[in-house]
Structures are given as structure tokens and as C-alpha cells.
Fold this sequence. Notes:
Helix content: 40-55%
Structural class: alpha/beta
Number of helices: 16
Bound molecules: coproporphyrinogen III
Amino acid sequence: MSSLLTALSGHRPERLPVWFMRQAGRSLPEYKQAREGTTILEACLKPELAAEITLQPVRRHNVDAAIFFSDIMTPLVLAGVDVDIKPGIGPVIDHPVRTAADVERIVSHRIDDASAITEAVRLVVGELGDDTALIGFAGAPFTLAAYLVEGRGSRDHLQARAMMHADPQSWHKLLDWAADLSAQFLGVQIDAGARAVQLFDSWAGALSRADYVDRVQPHSAKVLAAVEGRVPRIHFGVGTRHLLTDMAEAGVEALGVDYRTPLDEAARLVPGLPLQGNIDPALLAAGWDALEAHARDVVERGRQAPAHVVNLGHGVPPTTDPQVLTDLVALIHEL
Length: 335
Ligand code: CP3
């Protein structure tokens, strides 16, 4: 039985499960080699390559879960939306969605063929033993819309936050469409063998609680409801202390917490819910003694939750020494 799935069911396995957001990626030399000559979005649609990259960190670090190598933009690409991911920048949309007419245009896009995803997930699951579960994922409607409306990453998401008030009807139409796309993307991964899912609402922390509850959470809840009862659902965002109870109420089995909120505090905010997190990614470059002390503190605070999946409080920075991650997994398994 996978320790990840035990923890996500609310029980404490013998050994703490640990995996890292962005564990597949630029911190690994074998990733850089495999990706050579291929853009990230191309790599996501090549089943053998995506499967190989998914498995690399499992082989190297002995983590307790694989996260499917893809991107929150992949469903948009599959639906024929004109998006790109620029190195060092992130997702870029040439024609941002700003007006009611833009929204009308984009919501006509549908995913017809997701066979590249099905095939990649099947290849991964065929290689993983029973002990290591594959986690599927999707971007939450707000985080997808934040890119679509802004046209690229943004600190304050001013245009997206303006649009939800300027034209609520178009806003809800856009998020409802994004929710369907994310739900479909998760469904394909589960059908092919993913045994848990994570909904990334990375940028939800930029929202006021009122905007989140009225204009965002119902759409995330729709995505999560679409997979309810199939596999455990993890919900994660950055800077979301003020939203944790609402993110939990969207319908989840576990909540991901970023590095700003100590897990004992999170456990008080969402009692009874397994938590995932929240080693500060900055500590990966702070020397072993500082990292070990911090990791022990995170695990200690995590004991206030019914179960704990150890992870970082956000993704692995590309400059991380991979040996530090391998050593960190070994430490967590001893605690
Ligand atoms: O190992 C894993 O976590 C699985 C793969 C994964 C990727 N993207 C691959 C990727 C996952 C889970 C994502 C999700 C994702 N993508 C999120 C949510 C998670 C988070 O970090 O908050 C977001 C916001 C994106 C959008 C995105 N894609 C960004 C901001 C970037 C970084 C751009 C850069 O160059 O710094 C990407 C590109 C991307 N997606 C990379 C990887 C490994 C790095 C680019 C590369 O390797 O060429």
C-alpha cells in the first residue's frame, strides 16, 4: 500500500510520505538532457518522453509519489488555444482574453483528443510499483484565467481581478469553461491510472477572501466535484492562509500549505484534514544544518494534523542541488 494514499485517507503510515512539487525539472541533469531540443509543451505531448521525465525523480530521490510531467497549460494546448511557455518567463498568451467577445471565442475550444496524456500516464503507471502512486494534476480555473487574462504571469493579477468585477458574466463564463477543461484533464489522468490528484490554484493568494468565495471557489469546487469519490484530492495555493478554510470547503481530502503558514496553525484552521507541505524552498540552498533543523520543525508541527504528506511550500527551484533533495527524502523517512 502506498504511504501517500494512506496519509491522504487520513491515517498515519509507518513512514512519512514525501514528494516535491516540480521534482521533475531543471534541477536534474538527466531532465535537461532528455529535454534537449524540445520545448516544454512539446515534451508534455510526447508520451515516452513525458513518462521518462516523470520517472526520473522517483528513481533518483526515492520519493513516495510521482507527479505527472505536464503543465497547467497542457489542456489549453490540447483544446487548440494559442499558448506558449517561454523559458524563464512562463506561460505567454499572444491574444489575452480581455473582452466579452474574447471570452465567447475561447469558450468554443474543446479537447477532442487527449490520447497523448492517456498513453504517457499508462507508461508511467506500468513502471511504478504499488508503493509509489502517480499524482495527476490540473490548474485551478482562477490560476488558468489569471494567465489567460493577463497574457503572462503577474504579481497582482490586476486585470483578472478587475474583470471579475467589471464583467462578472464573462468572468464566470470563462472560469466555468476552464473548470470543464481542468476536470476533463484530471479525468483522463485518473482513467489512465493516476491514483491521486492535485489542483494547483497557485495564484489564488492574490485574492481577497470575498472575491475568492464569490467569484472563484465555486469553479474550483466544480472541478473537484467532477472527480469526487474516484481518487483523493489535494488542493494547493501560494499565500493562501486567509483562504484555507474556503479551499478546504471546495471539496478535498487534503490541503497543500505554502511555506508562510506553519502547519500547526494550518491544522487549527482546518481541523481533521490531512495536510501537505511546507518546507521552505529557500532552505534547500541554506546548508544542511539549517535545512535539517527546518525539516524537523515542519514534521513536528505537522503532527498536529491527522496525517501529513511532506512536501515543499512551493516548487523546487531550478538551481537546487539534487543531492540535497535525495538527502532530504532519506531524513524524512527516518523521522
Ligand atoms: O515535477 C512536477 O511538478 C511536474 C511538472 C509540472 C510542470 N508545471 C512542469 C514545468 C507541474 C506540476 C507544473 C504546474 C504549473 N505550471 C504551475 C502550478 C505549480 C506552481 O509552480 O505553482 C504553474 C503556475 C505553471 C506555469 C508555468 N510553467 C511556469 C510558471 C513555468 C516556469 C517558467 C520558467 O522557465 O521559469 C512553467 C514551465 C515549466 N513547467 C517548467 C517545468 C519543469 C520549467 C521550464 C522547463 O523545464 O523548460
